[in-house]
Amino acid sequence: MTEQLARVRNLRISFGxxxxxxxxxxEVGAGECLALVGESGSGKTITSRALLGLVPRSATISxxxxxxxxEAATEFDESHWQGIRGRRxxxxxxxxxxxLDPLRTIGQEVGExxxxxxxxxxxxxxxxxxxxxxxxxxxxxxxxxxxxxxxQYAHELSGGLRQRALIAAATIARPRLLIADxxxxxxxxxxxxxxxxxxxxxxxxxxGLILISHDLAVVARIADRVAVMxxxxxxxxxxxxxxxxxxxxxxxxxxxxxxxxxxAKGERLGTLPPVVLAPAAPVDRSSTVLSVRGVSQSxxxxxxxxxxxxxxxxxDLRAGSTIGIVGESGSGKTxxxxxxxxxxxxxxxxxxxxxxxxxxLPERRRxxxxxxxxxxxxxxxxxxxxxxxxxxxxxxxxxLTGVARADLKxxxxxxxxxxxxxxxxxxxxxxxxxxxxxxxxxxxxxxxxNPRVLLCDEPVSALDVSxxxxxxxxxxxxxxxxxxxxxxxxxxxxxxxHVSDEVLVMSNGVxxxxxxxxxxxxxxxxxxxQALLSALPDPLSTLEGAPS
Amino acid sequence: xxxAVAGTSRAGAALTLYLPRLVGALIVIWGAAxxxxxxxxxxxxxxxxxxxxxxxTVSEQVRESIRxxxxxxxxxxxxxxxxxxxxxxxxxxxSYRLQQPVTAVIGAQLLPTVQLAALSIVFALVIALxxxxxxxTRVARAIATLIELIAISSPTFWTGLLLLTVFSFQLxxxxxxGGQGLPALVLPALTLALPIAGILSxxxxxxxxxxxxxxxxxxxRARGLTFAEQLGRHTLxxxxxxxxxxxxxxxxxxxxxxxxxEQLFGRPGIGRVALDAINNRDLPVVMxxxxxxxxxxxxxxxxxxxxxxxxxxxxxxxx
Lengths: 548, 319
Description:
The structure holds two protein chains of two kinds.
Chain A: E1 4-15, E2 18-29, E3 33-37, H1 44-50, E4 59-62, E5 65-68, E6 71-72, H2 78-84, E7 89-92, H3 96-99, H4 106-120, H5 127-140, H6 146-150, H7 159-171, E8 177-181, H8 189-204, E9 208-213, H9 216-222, E10 225-230, E11 233-239, H10 240-245, H11 250-258, E12 288-300, E13 306-318, E14 322-326, H12 333-340, E15 348-353, E16 356-357, H13 363-366, E17 373-376, H14 390-401, H15 408-418, H16 435-448, E18 453-457, H17 465-482, E19 485-490, H18 493-499, E20 502-507, E21 510-516, H19 517-522, H20 527-535, H21 539-545
Parallel strand pairs in A: 3-9, 3-10, 7-8, 8-9, 14-19, 14-20, 17-18, 18-19
Antiparallel strand pairs in A: 1-2, 1-4, 1-5, 5-6, 10-11, 12-13, 12-15, 15-16, 20-21
Helix pairs in contact in A: 4-5, 4-7, 5-7, 7-8, 9-21, 14-15, 14-16, 15-16, 16-17
Chain B: H1 2-42, H2 47-52, H3 60-70, H4 76-88, H5 102-134, H6 138-153, H7 156-170, H8 183-212, H9 215-222, H10 227-245, H11 247-264, H12 270-279, H13 283-311
Helix pairs in contact in B: 1-4, 1-13, 5-8, 5-11, 5-13, 6-8, 7-8, 7-11, 8-10, 8-11, 10-13, 11-12, 11-13, 12-13
């Protein structure tokens, strides 16, 4: 029997009358990883905060047992908790850029736990001892050149190094229990794999790990046991292999079913019925709608010199088909999207729309055809006027398209129902909608203009997996019925694989690999694509090798 | 060797960073000097009439000799260039009324005002921090907001009289007036500090709220930091840039406030000099004070610009 680091029985947390955690029980031992999986609002984060005594003061918390590091935590006062936090239980938060103090050096941030606790324990460390400990810990999390890195600030480090530094800041005081709250969500795939490996190493060294994630693929990679949370309850728990390969609870099954990477293309991901749209006119699906011809774009770099953001990219896009553009952050995919939208004039090459000049036109002449290309972004909220209701947002777009005043209201309602929005939402403002509903409003607004091309830049990246599934299904329905051409930009290989007919893999502005979606994913030729795919945590492939 | 190279390139970078600001600062001072000159010479009417006042019965002969002495009979451009030359060499002429060099008049009165301003800033900071840090619960926050509002909206002459009545006339803790020693400085400085403290407290409180909502504060708490440690190591620093931005406003209110405070408490100082000079049409003194105020503002803004990158490393653009 391994040493118990935390044990929770019948934990309840409520805010006012709202119960957010409802009778949760689990335990974590040394060298073991428990994953709390669930979508936003499932109560997984606040459950983990209870082990740190960091539940907001406005909450009511009760438990039959809440023991941390072998002590009954229900009896702790604030100063006792301060001795536990960082020393016995560490926290690794999501985004190191904001979870490390931007005004302090990496060395100061990493050393802080040790500094504060050694002083509290009346054994203050000297400056030299502290610096040595920081360097040793930075080396432990595999940060190269720890001496010079310790003097840098979070914004000067790459995403991967930053996240490692955040982990070092949590592990330096050697807490036996580490809570990792979505530790890889903000990271590119390759870096995500490295950070998971690091967490796995810590686990093997004997740290107990509570991994909080919405991403089943991440969980499959290092978790020993999984607890699936929904509406504040653990609906299913068990060892990772059996929960992920043979889920018993319906919710776990729907979560797995909604993950795009595990599906045959063209299969529906969500459980909602297809929407029904009214095509304006039959579309000739053999016609080329969008042509990108040798487009290049470079930018002046802040430090001097120029960076080639997009380098001689070409492709043709037919009506009713989707091209997926995939790459890590900084690969140039968003710049390419801006050029296609005509928001940015390329240095070289041109974009043709329906066989006629597009990117080369002056904006004045482009305007009358702007409606032909519509865009859907990751964060639709920032593209809405917050004072307008959903109905007003849609009517504005419809009026631009030339719908008669008298028909606006009826058309807006029709459009909303076509994208699966209830009529009661028309009177609401975007701020009060959920992420999935907002994205549907953005899609409805785009459709209001009768576009020929829909450009989607990370449209599902901020959504929970079940909502993502619904929105991806909606895109598929729209395309099947209206014959839209789609440019789909994403860093998520599973999503790209699911939606695309043809795939462009971009790295440093260059298309390193292209081809039909199936070929690129089943037999990648370029080393970069191979590396991307090998970093992809595939639950099923991981589980096949796992001992059962 | 490599450090030497890095050193010179860093110095070069600092020069390219700060040279434009230095040039800009000089242009502002030149603009203030020019404006003072224009106001005196381009408004309708004879400068000598303005100096002597409408009711004066000085003979035309005397007026002419004043014009000669001040060079008012020369072409305007020549007067302007001569004036600029004097400004550069800090020669502001003689006060009509006191018959002393202007620099001597201002120099003699500078120290009491600097003392007043310095103690006011200390008071304002202490009071603002006390209010901002005390406002942690909802009730305390409501009280803090009220205190801030009263402090900001009370006119200084009224607060000054109130403080005088309570602490000087009734409690007799502090002298009623005069410029001697620290006890005489306390009430004037407090009066001057209160409205500044109100604004500063609002800004610091707002900054702390913003900082406390940041994820890195969660990280800090999860490391076991006490509230005081969070303040000292993280959040206060994040709250300080907006407060630093207010420095120009604060200096402005110190200069303007000094005029009232020094009158009210019968203290010597620049404010008193300014008031006397304006009342008596002592134009050389007034013009020197205009330029003095411009220099103070420019210097404060330069210091603020230099402080930002010290507080926030993301603003350091030395590469």
